[in-house]
Amino acid sequence: MDHGHMGGMASPPSPPSSTMNGSNGMMHHKMMMHMTFFWGTNAEVLFSKWPGSSTGMYYVCLLFVFALAVIVEWLSHCRLIKAGSSDVVCGLAQTFLHAIRVGLAYMVMLAVMSFNVGVFLVAVAGHTIGFLLFGSRVFKKPDPQDEKGSDLPPMSC
């Protein structure tokens, strides 16, 4: 019986020698990509090796994701375009604001895709606080002449 092949299948190719760790042949990985939620400050969010293993930088990362989520909500509910502007100027401004809002929303989504529970929680908290401040009736008085409410339509899924 031929023991070099299992069921007629060839064995998988060996890994390149640059990934081998010394003489014992063990694989060496610098960072493990998580595919399930995990707790911990040793994460990689948005950029390579950021925030790294520093606890302080992890908290800076959380603050950054929180701020991005609040800004997305602000852009979703703000009124930056004056009522008397021309249609072309309004259309270009709306398009620019939409591009910024969607880009920031995707950055928040990519941060959450790090599967770090802390990043997930601050993203949800940022959207919640942002909506409370800019989208709910708690901090703004309804304007009877303003049916639109913001320069941009609500984000749709």
Automatic annotation (TrEMBL):
Segments for region (Disordered): 1-20
Membrane topology category: Multi-pass membrane protein
Keyword field: Copper, Copper transport, Ion transport, Membrane, Transmembrane, Transmembrane helix, Transport
A UniProt-annotated Pfam family: Ctr
Localisation: Membrane
GO cellular component terms attached to this protein's record: plasma membrane
GO terms for MF: copper ion transmembrane transporter activity
TM ranges: 56-76
Sequence similarity: Belongs to the copper transporter (Ctr) (TC 1.A.56) family. SLC31A subfamily.
UniProt-recorded name of the protein: Copper transport protein
Taxonomic classification: Eukaryota, Viridiplantae, Streptophyta, Embryophyta, Tracheophyta
Gene (UniProt): LOC110769191
